[in-house]
Amino acid sequence: MDPARAAQIDIALRCCLLESYVFHFTTWFWFLILVLVPGTIRTSPPPPLDKGPVTLKPAYLLAPLLLVASLATSQPSPLRIGDATARAGAAVSGFIDIPAGADSGTRIPVSIIRGSAAGPTLALIAGTHGSEVAPIIALQRVRQSLDPAQIRGTLILVHIANMPSFLARTIYYSPIDHKNLNRVYPGKRDGSVSERIAEAITREVIDRSDYLVDIHSGDGNESLRPYTYWSKLGLDARTDSLGRMMALAWGNDHIVVDTDRPRDVKASVYTQNTAHLRGKPSITTEAGYLGVAAEDMVQRNVDGAFRLMRFLRMLPGEVQLVEHPVWLDRTAVLTSPGTGVWHPRVDRGTTVQRGTVIGELTDFFGNVVAQVRAPFAGEVLYVVGTPAMSKGEPVAMIGCAAEEKD
User: Fold this and answer.
1) Measured at the alpha carbon of residue 231, what is the angle toward residues 226 and 235, in degrees to the nearest 5?
2) Most buried residue, 23, 62, 190, 191, by CB count within 10 Å?
3) What distance in Å separates the CA atoms of residue 318 and residue 24, rounded to the nearest whole number?
């Protein structure tokens, strides 16, 4: 990264984080001027005590209000999400209840770690797809590792966004309404269970956050190499720019540049996009594979969370950014031309050329009925590693960096 550019962004971020303290300083300044320096607010001698009631100058009435406002800024009020309420310097856990409606209800486990000092609010969401387990285990470790006394601001953890999918061990879709939670945002309070989950997360978590990460991994059928999605929508320069820096801070060196996300806040579709369209810098991360909690992938997600918190000055320590990112501005999700048995012919992370066979589809007796080939040269970001396949389902994703286009 260009050092001058990095310095400019660092200064801009510091300014954003210091913004919350400007009011704090101002109120204390005027309190000192108005109350502790009597000459500045008294234009005539005080009336004798026997000459009737004393009329307070407006400044005397204003000073306590300023003091109260200052104290409120330095000592954050309690934050309630679902049935969990966290005061400054506390870490609590609880549930967001999703009542039964058109179908059965569920619960969303959440934690709030609220620092004693004011600062940004960061939301980390795991378990949007129930078999993407590495992020779920990672957030358990983050919850157990953090001391509220060490952080500035507030960390919101959504441990398992999609509890029905998690408990039923399904991929992609809810076992109740058969919908993909990451395709129904911002949700509906009177919709099906996935839509009600999305509405609750939008209202309780996204709308209360300043920054957000939707943490994913390869689903139970996906062999995936780590990468991050950065949205570059061109609607708000600050949101785009800080999202880019969040992607670099998280630590995955392969970063998909996504310019095609919906731009309608009422039909945002994706978790991350819902935050982005509300002016909240956000990213989607991917690390983990095939529905297993591989230790290196769990730790990668833990490291990403702490790296980002240091970048946002929520934790002390050196800020680290990816030094040599691979920006993938061309991607393609390849789908199955039919229903049958899938046989992958490449591994995750494999470099392929245009026309390389990604995998073969056979009928249920072993006869090859189709081949899926790479549409351009690039890298395999994920490939389905399990046999069951239905027509139209994803089989792989290919990414290509700008300088590698054919």
Assistant:
1) 170
2) 191
3) 26
Write out the H or E segment, with its range, that includes residue 170: none
pTM: 0.84
Domains present along the chain, CATH in parentheses: 3-74 (no CATH), 79-324 (3.40.630.10), 330-404 (2.40.50.100)
Q: What is the mean pLDDT of residues 240-257?
A: 98
DSSP for 367-394, written as a single string: -EEEEEE-SSSEEEEEEE-SSEE-TT-E
- Cα dist. 101→181, 194, 195 in Å? 17, 11, 11
CA distance 319 to 309: 9
Identity of the residue numbered 15: C
Task: Identify the burial level of 266 via C-beta atoms within 10 angstroms of its C-beta, where 0-12 means exposed, 13-18 middle and 19 or more buried.
Answer: exposed
Among residues 163, 76, 138, the alpha carbon closest in space to that of 113 is found at: 76
Query: Among candidates 228, 249, 67, 6, which has minimal Cα distance to 135?
Result: 228
Higher-scoring residue by pLDDT: 244, 61:
244
Nearest to 17 by CA among 119, 152, 121: 119
Are the beta carbons of 299 and 229 closer than 8 angstroms? no
In angstroms, the CA 98 to CA 89 distance is 28
Cα–Cα distance, 268 to 261 (Å, whole number): 8
Return the closest-CA partner of residue 359 out of 351, 367, 368.
Answer: 368
DSSP category for residue 48: P
Q: What would the pLDDT profile of 178-201 be if each residue is shown by its tens digit? A: 999 999 999 999 999 999 999 999
Residue 2's pLDDT band (cuts 50, 70, 90): low
* pLDDT score of 346 more than 80: yes
CB 112 within 8 A of CB 92: yes
| pLDDT tens per residue across span 54-96 | 343 444 344 344 333 434 444 368 999 999 999 999 999 999 9
The neighbouring-strand residues paired with 292 are 289
Q: How many angstroms separate the CA atoms of 58 and 49, rounded?
A: 20
